[in-house]
Amino acid sequence: MTTLQAVFEFTEEDLRCNRAGRLSPTQQRVQSGSLVKRRVVSATVGFVGLAVAAALAYPLATDGVDGNLGRLAAAVAAASIGLLFLSGLGERPSPEVLVTEGAAMLVRRTDEDGDHQLLTTHHLVIGEDEWQVSSNQLESLAEERLYRVYHGGMPRQILSIEPGGPPPGPPG
After folding, report:
1. Burial code of 105-141, b = ≥16 C-beta within 10 A, e = fewer?
2. Is residue 57 scored above 90 in pLDDT?
3. What pLDDT does 91 receive?
4. Which of 95, 119, 133, 172 has its CA 20 to 30 A from that of 154?
5. How does strand 129-133 pair with strand 146-152?
6. Treating both helix axes as pointing N-terminal to C-terminal, what angle do 12-19 and 25-63 enclose, rounded to 10 degrees?
7. Looking at residue 88, what is its pLDDT?
8. Is 20 exposed, middle or buried (0-12, 13-18, 19+ CB in 10 A)?
């Protein structure tokens, strides 16, 4: 196993499938599990938003809208949030594997508030594409070196990565 495979947590099979433009069976299972979790959260937030909207709107139906514009606005906002989250339930992750190749630019960004350091994030940038990575992942890469990044999924993530140059041919 190469250092990049260990640090970015992918296998030789993942890389082989990604080179062919598809997800490996393991990557498909991981994305399916992530999709289920996102759908559960979306459904929960969506139904809670609609329940809050209904609770806020019920007195308006009995007492009238006069003097209750704030309650009406809150009910509309809660319903909108609920519907927004419920509308995302049909989204499917793209099985497409995209490839970006080029010289790596390694970036550390720190959000500061006065003298207090809040958060440092690490990013791999190749051309117009950018991925947030861990500090270990960033340290495993070399500035200006050519890399081939296989990415896709929802959210956009690095599936596998290898040094750039011509793709390796089949063994033999």
Report:
1. ebeeeeeeeeeeeeeeebebebeeeebbbeeebbebb
2. no
3. 60
4. 119
5. unpaired
6. 80
7. 65
8. exposed
Closest CA to 12 of 20, 3, 1: 1
User: Does 21 have pLDDT greater than 80?
Assistant: yes
Euclidean distance between CA atoms 95 and 32, whole angstroms = 11
pLDDT score, position 110: 83
Task: Report which DSSP code applies to 167.
Answer: P
Closest CA to 159 of 43, 14, 20: 14
Query: With a threshold of 0.90, does the pTM exceed it?
Result: no
Beta strands in 17-156 (DSSP E): 97-103, 105-113, 116-126, 129-133, 146-152
> Taking residues 30-58, what's their average pLDDT?
74
Measured CA distances, 139 to 8, 30, 129, 134, 163 (Å): 11, 25, 19, 9, 15
Q: How confident is the model at residue 6 (pLDDT cuts 50, 70, 90)?
A: very high
CA dihedral 13, 17, 18, 23 (to 10 degrees): -100
* 167-170-171-172 Cα dihedral, nearest 10 degrees: -130
